[in-house]
Amino acid sequence: MAIQQVQFSIKNIDDAEGIEGVITALQNIDGVLAAELSPESDTGVVKFEDTKTSIHAIKAAVSMVDYVTQPFPADAPANPKN
Fold first, then answer.
1. Alpha helix ranges (H) inside the chain
2. In terms of CB atoms within 10 Å, which of 8, 19, 63, 73 comes out highest?
3. pTM here?
4. Widest pairwise Cα distance in the chain
């Protein structure tokens, strides 16, 4: 088991209901340990056990609540924070 962290971009979350919907979708994934959203910077961070879930499951969960996401490892060059 390895704990991974992924940061992703989310566009157009501008209300508490949207934030709550995304957080709930992420927390319902088996293996997700923590999920945080930062609507002011259009990003989110999820920590997860890579033997139980994947970046693809995280992307699918966010997409199911109608937000666009592009996950990438927190230390990836594509990360806008790097």
1. 16-27, 55-64
2. 8
3. 0.73
4. 35
- Give pLDDT, residue 26: 92
For 64, the domain range is 3-73
The set of residues, in sequence order, having a beta carbon less than 8 Å from that of 30 and lying 6+ positions away, is 52, 53
43 lies in a domain?
yes
Gyration radius of the chain's alpha carbons: 12
Q: Does 82 reside within a domain?
A: no
42-69 residue pLDDT tens: 888 999 999 999 988 988 888 777 655 5
- The DSSP code sequence of 20-47 is HHHHHHHHTSTTEEEEEEEGGGTEEEEE
pLDDT of residue 5: 93
pLDDT at residue 39 in the model: 82
Task: Read off the CATH number of the domain in which 31 is found.
Answer: 3.30.70.100
Helix 55-64 and helix 16-27, axial crossing angle in degrees, nearest 10: 140
Q: Please tell me the distance from the alpha carbon of residue 48 to that of residue 33, in angstroms, as a whole number.
A: 5
